[in-house]
Design brief:
The protein is of the alpha/beta class. Among the domains are: 211 residues, 3-Layer(aba) Sandwich (Rossmann fold), CATH 3.40.50.1100; 110 residues, 3-Layer(aba) Sandwich (Rossmann fold), CATH 3.40.50.1100. It is built from 21 helices and 16 strands. A six-stranded mixed sheet has the order 4-5-15-10-11-14, with helices on both faces. The protein has a five-stranded parallel sheet with strand order 9-6-7-8-16, with helices on both faces. Strand 7, helix 7 and strand 8 form a beta-alpha-beta unit. Helix 3 crosses helix 10 and helix 4 runs antiparallel to helix 5. It is globular, with a radius of gyration of 21 Å. The structure holds pyridoxal-5'-phosphate. The site of pyridoxal-5'-phosphate has 16 residues, from helix 11. Pyridoxal-5'-phosphate binds next to helix 11. Keywords: Lyase, Pyridoxal phosphate. It comes from Gemella haemolysans ATCC 10379. GO terms for molecular function: threonine synthase activity. Its cofactor is pyridoxal 5'-phosphate.
Length: 490
Amino acid sequence: MIYESTRDINRKLNPSEAILQGLSEEGGLFVLRDLGKNKLNLEKLIGKSYYEVAEAVLRLFVDFSDEEIKKCVEEAYRGKFSHENITPLVGLKDSYVLELFNGPTSAFKDVGLSLLPQLTKTALTKVEDKNDILILTATSGDTGKAALEGFKDVDRTKIMVFYPNDGVSTVQKTQMQTQEGKNTKVCAIHGNFDDAQSGIKELFVDEEFKKELLSKNIKLSSANSINIGRLIPQVVYYVVSYLDLVNTNKIKLNDKVNFVVPTGNFGNILAGYYAEQIGLPVNKLICASNNNNVLYDFLTTGVYDKNRDFLKTVSPSMDILISSNLERLLYYISGCDNAYIAKLMKDLKETGRFEVTGEVLDKIKDKFQAGFADDEQTKETIKAIYEKDNYLLDTHTAVAYKVLLDNLDNEHASIVLSTASPYKFTESVYSSLFETQGEDEFTLMNKLHEQTKVVIPENLRDLDKKEIRHKDVINKEDMKKYILEKLGDL
Ligand SMILES: *Cc1c(COP(=O)(O)O)cnc(C)c1O
């Protein structure tokens, strides 16, 4: 089982090395060339638990022993999620909602980031590397907290998280600023998410910086969804939700279903494509964007162009103009043509734009559909679904739900991926339903609970009473200096 860089066929690593390294040296992402050669046996998985399905999926992506895989999955999820099925499926009138937010930080990123540290820990033992791992992460709000929780006090790892100072919600910021753990550091930057992500990406290809770290016995890795160890766990819930529908006789085995995915960095929806490649019967993967609809434009025209204003929306975790994981899809769609991908990514870097061939676009359209919703539509959808189904959507899930409503399909069941608890974005959710009088997020959290009776997740309940431990704010140019300075604290 060998991973290679999307941009260079000669850069090959085994699964452990790919997980530990995160990103290829020249900037490419690690991919399995023969993805889909081995398929899941879906029939055998009917009626199995989340854990068992996860083990079956993981066996297709890592060369760990069955015992190691089982241990990783157990330690990642057992007792850590508030629902015993990990990702329960809820039936509404027009669709099914796949709740991915029952983990320790109430966002879907917990699913990937609970397992990644276990995969990292196991990978370290397999490559017999004596260095410790430093996880560097840029976040639009949810990844950061989920990564911090996942790696908190995990042996031989340290983690530093950078977030845009004005680009995350109050709850998200408070979650990160109150982070505990002796190996954690959190810092805000003046800039947006793309600035933070580009800054981190540059450090990953900065040889001098890496040499300096190595002299302190530290190697870099990433918890962003560019890390394959983060992506693989996300494949699991696509399979689990499908099997759920089979199990409850909503569909027959081999019936195709649609998945509607609120999308930012293209990690979540790419995991759906991986699920399809390993044998899941998928009709369409529907990519839902907010007003930063660079992906909608790309999936409908074949032109990716990030030269546009970066807009702040009520779904901030999707405020992204460079969707890193699209590169992996382009690699597969182009027939694993590394040179072609290297050229597209060079265009993107130099001009902020690339255009794929008509043939590539047609192949993408075979599997993908796209739509987007603005803030007003998002808030209207929260209200409409609350009134129609008595179900409370968060803003990101509402973007997806609006796109579903625009693309209703009577032939196939549709599953909407719900990526956050409504309480993570309380102000926007509350004001979609009720009048506000300038109350703070934490007051609104309690009011939202009083009005709707939806339970507040435990990790958010007393957040405002926790001690603020991380207050640093820096310019985006100073990330490297900051890291080298602060490393000694961890
Ligand atoms: C990260 C995130 C997304 C976007 O997921 P990608 O994998 O980056 O496409 C959507 N919704 C929420 C709540 C998120 O945290």
